[in-house]
# Entry
Amino acid sequence: MAGIYIHIPFCKQKCTYCDFHFSTTFSDYRSEMIEAILKEIDLRKVYLLNQQIQTIYFGGGTPSLLTENEIVKILTKIRNEFIVLADVEVTLEANPDDITEEKLAIWKHAGVNRLSIGLQSFKESDLKWMNRAHTVEEANQCISMAQNAGFNSLTVDLIYGLPNLSLEEWQDHIQRLIDLKVPHISAYCLTVESNTVLDHLVKKGKIIPSSDEAQAEQFLLLIDLLEKNGYEQYEISNFCLKNSASLHNSNYWKGEHYLGIGPSAHSFDGKSRSWNVANNRKFIKGIQQNRDCFETETLSNRDLFNETILTGLRTKYGVGITPLKNLLSFTPDFESMIKDFKHKNWLTEVNERYYLTQEGKLMADYITSELFII
# Structure
């Protein structure tokens, strides 16, 4: 099984924390970009030769800015060039301000069967300083609207660790999604990425980041509240009710193959990783001239070992010891770290697999980086 990711590099406005590749001034070359995406699908169709496509994911950027015709064109092209399963999961990332009854009907008619709603917060002041395009009223309405339109498969994104976000407010955000019976919830801790608006505001002292202690407290509350309400934490930041996990993202974590289409999109074929140029004009021009618009890195066994640690430990599936040893022999330092993390109750071993404990999940980034074999 394999997946296809389509990067739509369009946004209405720039969020303060975002470091993804996108443009807010795209109207003069929008049609060229869509045509370039269609042509790249054709140029790179051999990448997943003879593999069945289980998932298609429209990410960005803001894919909910696409018209029905643009979505249909892209999906039709994929179906013509690849072996697409009849029950393929087709996800569209959408912002609350783009969600209307008319658009929901359009997306469903176009073939989208799963929505990923970038809600982020139910607090107006947070939405304003994050420079989100939607309001709290739109946040409150969009979920029920999507459910009423028949989107039973949907996920909602929240951000915690925001400056001045109290534990009570965070609990209210989570509870609203529980009450609405949202089947999948993705919750991410705010990260200050270099060269973002948020980074500059922090450096100027205009925003004081939340403390590590406050972020940890909010993370633990998230886990506790969702688990008590029937949600499974199947990845550090992802929680779902029964049979509602994201197939597309799960395949990333399991090391399945995927093809990335569009500027800045990444691809993986099990042996190498490639990434497209993160420049809209260069991407369009290169595709028009039938040139490769990506760089490729062949992955060594060490690279694959480290990536298996990075992705596997974040999930409920853990990491198999035998597959790791098949890639690389354990070094004395690696075995010493494993022993130390077990002693600290950050890591556990069950049936020849390593798993993070609840305490370990708080230290996930540190643990994985320490286990890398350099």
Observations:
- The chain has two domains: 2-253, 301-371.
- The chain has a mean pLDDT of 93.
